[in-house]
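hey can u run this one w/ magnesium ion bound, need the structure tokens asap thx
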Amino acid sequence: MPALKGTGASPGIAIGKALVIREEIITVDRIEIAEEDVKDALKSFEEATSISLRQLELVREKTSAKLGKEKAAIFKAHQDILLDPALRDSVKSKIKDGRVCAAFAVQATFDEFCAMFEGVDNEYLKERAADVRDVGRRVVRNILGKKVIDLSALPPSSVIIAKDLMPSDTAMMDLDNVSGFITDAGGRTSHTSIMARSLEIPAVVGAVGVLDAARDGSLAVFDGREGEIVIDPSEDLLLEYIAKRDDYVREREKLEALRLLPAVTRDGKEVRLCANVGNEADAESALKHGAEGIGLYRTEFLYMQWNAFPSEDQQFAAYKAVCDKMAGHGIIIRTLDIGGDKDLPYFKFPPELNPFLGWRAVRMCLDKEDLFKAQLKAIIRTSAFGKVRIMLPMIISLEEFRKAKSLIAECKNELKEAKIDFDKSIKVGMMVETPAAVLMAEEFANEVDFFSIGTNDLTQYILAVDRTNKNIAHLYNPFHPAVLRAIKKVIDAAHKAGKWTSMCGELAGDESAVLLLLGLGLDEFSMSSISVPVVKKIIRNADYKCALKIAEAALKADTVEAVRKITHPEKPESPPICALPEAEAEPPTTK
Ligand code: PEP
Ligand code: MG
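ok here u go:
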């Protein structure tokens, strides 16, 4: 009954059968075969080809039903590769003339074709090498009788246990049958965590050792808020988890009753609670949980779902669908934030030593004007149908912001000439994610319409701690006094210039940070939809006067521990929720 602890990444109690995704490396030996075995080897290749074609057909049908024909097209391309005459002839001749086993003949042939694609001076063909490799791997696994994990058809109540999960892994996953995710890697701001919260599936990340502790079919239970995991629990413990799950469901029902109430403190301070979304389904869940708008629409997920850069019209259709769903509520659409730890399946980023400090987000967009303008126009066109705002990620200089604004002006002119309607005074804001943006906050505040603090990146850049590196995860802490002082500086700069500040990093949805952020003067909190009701409850039970005291004390604190004592009191539930004892309002370590 191994018990493990990870980071609670998405709330909820999960109870289910483990499905362990191990990255098994298959080595294919060059086995020479006798002439009389050639027939069997050819038969084995043909059978594996048929099995692979059937598997791909199944995945294609499911993807098409769930995500549409366009997204499923990739599997048709995989089937075409499998049936390519040149490729098939090459495998067969290696078996017949080279007298090697089927698995080796397939591996060698697919390697040759990959090398050919990778060698051509054409980005599109280079990208196809990954598909060829994928198909080759599938055929080899089928020849060797190794299991191909089909995530599109899962048994009910599956708990997916993996090293890490990418958005592409979940795109085709049979999510209706997933009870929870556990990953060995990742922290609260990793994309697995963000995705799990947006799908409202309980998750624990950074659970080191889970891949060794669990077997396929083990019973896995976990608490997605506390990060506690038990594999094959005793009967008593299982009953405890079942009771916990029932309590959790009841607690959520109570919270949802706050849906239509404002986020206002007992002494009248009101803030906006918004949601972070990646698609139309997330927008639906934003409304379901009572979000007042969308504070961050991460458009990169849209880009990740296509097989090539989506056109202006394709993007417009997606943005408008979200806008229509939000029925008049504000939407902040962030321009493409790719690079760093986020790849696109069809675009090869140049290798970089420090991708988080590299060619990402607005830097890449400003270098690829056509691409950027297609997105800007799609967003601007959407503004004719709702309260749409543009937000630029990773800005470090006024030059970047001005350049982006001039491209926005260019797009508006072109749309005007084409007689396409849009909001002439569409607001343009920026994310504050870099120390440069914080230090220049006053200058930026004069030019932007709003700020949104991206604490996920801001924490990593202020502290110089890679947000994805589990060896230094203990150093990654948005409650570090340096991060808090940066947040305060940005909010003050905005207010001085008559502008407002939102926060769309994960800190905005962190229950322990709510009063602190309220006291720091944050105007809007944007978070995973599932966190909105809990944050609203905390605010409605709080006194703004106390929140101000908490913020004042936290700003004087000189260590993470001193901040922790203020923001994480021993009994966070002791009534009234905001009643920080006077004695603790002054951090003990502050001189
Ligand atoms: C952030 O950096 O805080 C943020 C919201 O952006 P992302 O997590 O998408 O990098
Ligand atoms: Mg960011």
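The longest strand covers residues 13-21. anyway lmk if its weird
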